[in-house]
Design goal:
8 helices, single chain, 7-stranded parallel β-sheet, 269 residues, two-stranded antiparallel ribbon, globular, TIM Barrel
Length: 269
């Protein structure tokens, strides 16, 4: 099995580090990786307002072509040493599908491998970034009425991201499927049978659409998460459905490339 990190961010991330693309690549080589995918947060739909205080959830539209060009140059530099793939982490946002599809139709030909994720949930007449901080998550619970309602809204959004028609360049991998658990130590919740049922629907849809799952270890680095963003029963179900699990460190700084790969290797064997 090729040693691969399929979820890596870059200096183009406004809320990440200033480590260079080369520093990420060198860290991957140092840790014995054969393949990496840069998956920077794609520009948000033009008519969508980023609800985070610093408006820094994604790279600017003006940076996207330089991002693609810089990775293209890096591919040539590391040819024969490290397989480098150009990708994006695309936010699925309900009601903005047409704008998301337009971005993918425009830039998809330059992408090798991408992720689709859910970070934003509607709360009343606006949206909240569910993983921004614990205060925002508490606000989301209040807006939805309960923790269970947040989970339901999240997993219904995940399901929509899987089945939505976003064109031929739609990402094939679903990112951190339990990101809703980022603050679980502060807001404990055990999934009800109802929520598990929606997750099963998501996994069925992933299998039917020939998609993959992000084995995302970044939750291990988060104070209030403390776990991989994929529960054991979900992994077992994915294996039964022959859904590929792809390791992703979700590194936002070079030092985190390959973080906790051993946990993935253990599951993969």
């Amino acid at each position: 099995m090729q040693k691969r990190d399929g979820h890596i961010h870059t200096p183009f991330c406004p809320h990440g580090s200033n480590n260079t693309l080369r520093q990420y690549a060198e860290e991957a080589l140092k840790k014995g990786f054969e393949s990496i995918t840069f998956t920077e947060h794609a520009p948000l739909p033009p008519s969508f307002t980023d609800p985070t205080p610093q408006k820094d959830s994604a790279m600017a539209q003006a940076s996207l072509e330089r991002y693609i060009d810089d990775i293209s140059g890096l591919k040539k530099e590391y040819r024969g040493q490290l397989a480098i793939h150009t990708g994006l982490e695309v936010d699925y946002i309900a009601e903005f599908e047409d704008e998301i599809k337009l971005l993918l139709d425009t830039y998809g030909p330059y992408l090798d491998d991408s992720i689709i994720s859910v970070h934003f949930l509607r709360a009343g007449s606006s949206y909240l970034c569910l993983d921004y901080d614990e205060h925002t998550f508490k606000e989301l619970i209040s807006a939805c009425g309960s923790i269970e309602a947040v989970y339901e809204r999240y997993y219904r959004s995940i399901y929509s991201s899987i089945v939505s028609s976003l064109g031929s360049y739609k990402p094939k991998r679903v990112g951190h499927i339990t990101l809703v658990q980022k603050f679980i130590k502060l807001f404990p919740y055990s999934m009800s049978e109802h929520i598990r049922g929606i997750v099963f629907q998501c996994l069925d849809a992933i299998a039917e659409n020939g998609m993959e799952l992000d084995f995302n270890t970044s939750g291990l680095r988060k104070t209030y998460a403390g776990g991989i963003y994929l529960e054991d029963w979900m992994m077992n179900e994915a294996k039964q459905k022959k859904i590929p699990l792809v390791f992703g460190s979700d590194a936002h700084q070079a030092g985190d490339v390959g973080y906790a790969y051993e946990a993935f290797a253990e599951q993969a064997n």
